[in-house]
Amino acid sequence: MKTKRPVVLISVVVVVAAVIAGWLLFGGGSSGPTVLKSTTGPYTVQLSADAPRVGGNTFAFAVTGHAVDGVTVEPVMPQMGHAITPVPAAADGPGHFRAADVGLPMAGQWEITVSLRGPAGAGQVVFPVLVNQ
Question: Which residues, 6+ apart, have CB-to-CB distance to 17 below 8 Å?
Answer without folding.
Answer: none
